[in-house]
Amino acid sequence: MPLQFTDLLAEEIDIAGGELEEAEEYKGSIGRTMFDTPTSKDHTITVLMPADGIAKLPSQSLVRIKSRSKEKGGDGRQYLGVVVQGPFAEPDGLRADAPIVVTTTVRGAMFMPKYHGRVQVEILGEEVDGTLQPPRFRPLPNSPVFALSDGETRSLLGLESDLSLGWAVGFENMEVQIPAKRKSVLPRHVGVLGTTGGGKSTTVSGLVSEFQKAGIATILIDTEGEYTEIGLPAEDKAMVRLLERLNRKPRGVPNVHAYHLVGRETTATAPTPTQAFRLDFSSLSPYAAAEIMDLSEAQVDRFFKAYDTTKLVLRDLGIFPAKNNTQEERSILELNEFETGYPKMTLSHLIDIAGFFLSHLTKTDADPFNASFKTDAAKSVIRQRVAQVQTNNEISWKALLGKLWRLQRTGVFDSRNAQPIPFNALIQPGVVSIIDLSDTDSTIINNLVISNVLRGIQLEQEDAYTNASKTSQEPTPVMIIIEEAHEFLSRDRIAKMQNLFEQVARIARRGRKRWIGLLFVTQLPQHLPDEVLGLINNFILHKITDVNVVSRLKRSIGSINEGLWSRLPNLAPGQAIVSITSMTRPLLVAINPTPCKLRMIE
Questions:
Q1: What is the four-CA torsion angle of 297, 300, 306, 312, rounded to 10 degrees?
Q2: Contact 159, 174 (CB under 8 A)
Q3: Are residues 558 and 434 located together in one domain of the fold?
């Protein structure tokens, strides 16, 4: 612009009384609302801003819209909104694809028109006397728009707490935190969903580290052996660099213990302490056992005939309840077999009794394995009990025995070489327990272990809750993390194993009061039934590309807006859409890098 013209323009401005001063109600604003167009939608409004205001309104930022006062032709209403699209840069007075803009740009010419910014704002509500109420009107055109401060944004979004999850995308310094010990959050259960390579393992290990620091007892059911070295600092170079950017250092999770099935290996290495454990058949509900073994209808009928007969035999022989033991007699009356099994019954007891049934049908002599069944007196008692049961079809009995023997050959039931999981030790403050199932190679065994762990933790936490209530205190918070949840709770499996789902649902319902939270992790959310998704109130969604899965999740998670859903298929590794009950709205979050070592970096 020629210097002479600039001087003349300055003189004209002085003659006119100086530069136009912004009205008082617009001072401090960074943009103004636009008129509606035929493409405008309910609950969203277009906001325009000068070029220097674009950086002040990043995606997901909160804004306050103040309509003009009634004295100046407005309605005096005040709204709170969130940027759901943009910011976009548009040339002043020209279309972005105007020929002159395109031509000069591709030819590297000096032409650069002045430009402004545009964002789409979703109206969260109308502010009335310090409270946010559902909006009944739309902001008027040309209303000033103000960016909220970081502090006010954190407070309004519910991000100020004690458990760090990551950093809000689009903000310079907005840490996303969730409350560690508020009963309305984690005990309402969490789902970490996403395709392979999206960052789920980083999220889970980071959460475990945060849980431990907060004094939460964490039980992680690890089907791949991926987390058995989280007691060591992170070694991956990329992860270490990301930690350095946040002024953090690699740090192993303290107080980690690894448990593995007897006769199976563990991927845990020193200095992480390891311990073998067994499964007690007596702790397993017969209904859950029948479901997990995938018995046919005929086999289920024979399974329960053998099971009920075994109970009578154990009683007749004084194994349980013992003779004249009133306490054990009373416990039998209170026994709920939908939740647990018959005390002191072993899998080999059941196999022996099933063998007696088969021998009865084939008119042969049974050869039991249990010493308590080998005496002539014991055999006589068993034969009498078996003879009282009406049954037939030796083929079904042989098939049932085959499946029972298959379980017995795993060597994990009632072993003398290991003890059951010490559940009381698992629910102590800050203890992290890894249940390593990487060497089982059996979905059935994995599901039996998971069922056993859920039941054992529930019983211990029930006792802890009762004891804490006597002194008006809370029990130690407990989080149970189930990796590869689709293997345990798939739609097909739930249809066949209603008892198993009821066990999970029972924990989910009681969890909030007794402080047990479930965290489901899966790369195949399409296999999770609606019943399971209905138990989850908190979601951390990594990249999901399947449109059918996204569509289904939309029906389950109503709080996420369309702008965030559209980003889900294209999220970068480590990014996630986070919807937590403590937050007023979902956010796109860059998840914290994990400080601990993972055996399989995504």
A1: -120
A2: yes
A3: yes
